[in-house]
């Protein structure tokens, strides 16, 4: 691997900078694990290219160190600022793109986010995942099939979302479990459940990532979405969301670059009094419904 000379500096300086890169690359030459060697050498090449590209000042380098230190300090068991940083830089979505290549009509994947919780309550088909979280009732239904169109019975579907105030249950200090559940598809690969009509909300922005967004004139707001994780034997686990057609935030932009056109779905508003699919009484209020047919790729593609 050789480095590109920086023609903005004199030849002696170019040589000095290039030689340093070569020495760092050589220091990884005897790495026993070939994959680790590839990663460390590529990282070296790109990191040094970046430093030379912007002619990084020492003050700027110190600012970067202070920033990463702050990211570390605010991170704990419930707050993962490094994941948030990766999300806000589009690195999470790029890693997802590299690892989930489009396969014969399989449903697109998108960012996982920090708010998934293991062991969310199981609900029956037609059950309510809101668990007391506030918001407009929304009926979600669909099927899970493989890429040959065969229904997938007993697929596990995890769903989670924020309440109408834009907060996930884990962001409240009272230990509530709401706005999350898991269920299984029936014999014909079909599923249905009650959720809440998703609303836009900001990613946590009271820490260093929020400061970065502020300093760069970016909004922390995510387009409204409902998270899904779908798994079944011999099929690739799908982590994705559905987004709400017509949400103005889709035009403004999603702060973690998670939107894919194929995941934008109609959430049809139902006027108050419209009978619900299962006879549930939603009081005087309006409700909404959406359909999401999920196609899982084979494992290992
Ligand atoms: C989320 O959708 O839950 C999320 C994704 C990335 C960063 C923060 C939140
Ligand atoms: Fe989310």
Polypeptide structure, described:
- The structure is a single chain.
- The protein has two domains: 11-56; 81-296, Sandwich (Protocatechuate 3,4-Dioxygenase, subunit A).
- With 301 residues, the chain is α/β, with parallel strands linked by helices.
- Strands 1, 4, 10, 11 and 12 form a five-stranded mixed sheet that branches.
- Helix content is 28%, strand content 19%.
- It has helices spanning 11-27, 34-53, 58-74, 81-88, 91-99, 208-215, 248-252; strands spanning 137-146, 156-160, 180-184, 190-196, 201-202, 221-222, 225-231, 238-244, 264-265, 268-270, 287-291, 294-296.
- The relative contact order is 0.15.
- Helix 1 packs antiparallel against helix 2 (34-53).
- The structure holds benzoic acid and fe (iii) ion.
- Benzoic acid (BEZ) is lined by residues 84, 87, 111, 113-115, 203, 222, 256.
Question: Counting H and I runs of at least 4 residues, what is the number of helices?
Answer: 7
Q: Which ligands appear in the coordinates?
A: benzoic acid, fe (iii) ion
Low-confidence stretches: none
User: What is the name of the CATH superfamily of the largest domain?
Assistant: Aromatic compound dioxygenase
Radius of gyration: 23 Å
Helix fraction?
A: 25-40%
Write down the overall mean pLDDT.
Answer: 95
Total beta strand runs: 12
Strand content: 15-25%
> N- to C-terminal separation?
30 Å
Mind summarizing the main beta sheet?
5 strands, mixed
Number of domains: 2
What name is given to the CATH topology of the largest domain?
Answer: Protocatechuate 3,4-Dioxygenase, subunit A
CATH architecture of the largest domain: Sandwich
Quaternary assembly: single chain
């Amino acid at each position: 691997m050789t480095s590109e000379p920086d023609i903005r500096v004199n030849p002696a300086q170019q040589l000095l900078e290039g030689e340093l890169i070569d020495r760092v690359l050589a220091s990884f030459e005897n790495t026993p694990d070939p994959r680790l060697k590839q990663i460390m050498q590529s990282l070296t090449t790109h990191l040094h290219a970046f430093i030379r590209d912007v002619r990084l000042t020492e003050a700027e380098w110190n600012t970067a160190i202070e920033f990463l230190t702050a990211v570390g300090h605010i991170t704990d068991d419930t707050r993962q600022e490094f994941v948030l940083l990766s999300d806000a830089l589009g690195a999470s979505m790029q890693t997802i793109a590299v690892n989930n290549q489009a396969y014969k009509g399989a449903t697109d994947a998108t960012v996982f986010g920090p708010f998934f919780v293991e062991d969310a309550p199981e609900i029956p088909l037609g059950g309510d995942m809101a668990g007391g979280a506030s918001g407009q009732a929304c009926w979600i239904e669909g099927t899970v099939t493989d890429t040959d169109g065969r229904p997938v019975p007993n697929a596990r579907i995890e769903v989670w979302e924020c309440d109408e105030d834009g907060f996930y249950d884990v962001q409240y200090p009272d230990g509530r479990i709401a706005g999350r559940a898991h269920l299984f598809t029936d014999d014909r690969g079909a599923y249905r459940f009650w959720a809440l009509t998703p609303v836009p909300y900001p990613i946590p922005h009271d820490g260093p990532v929020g400061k970065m967004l502020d300093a760069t004139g970016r909004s922390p707001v995510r387009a409204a979405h409902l998270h899904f994780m779908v798994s079944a034997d011999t099929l690739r686990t799908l982590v994705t969301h559905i987004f709400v057609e017509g949400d103005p935030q889709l035009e403004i932009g999603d702060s973690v670059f998670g939107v894919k056109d194929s995941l934008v779905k109609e959430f049809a508003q139902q006027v108050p009094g419209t009978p619900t699919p299962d006879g549930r009484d939603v009081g005087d209020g309006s409700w909404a419904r959406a359909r999401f047919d999920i196609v899982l790729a084979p494992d290992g593609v």
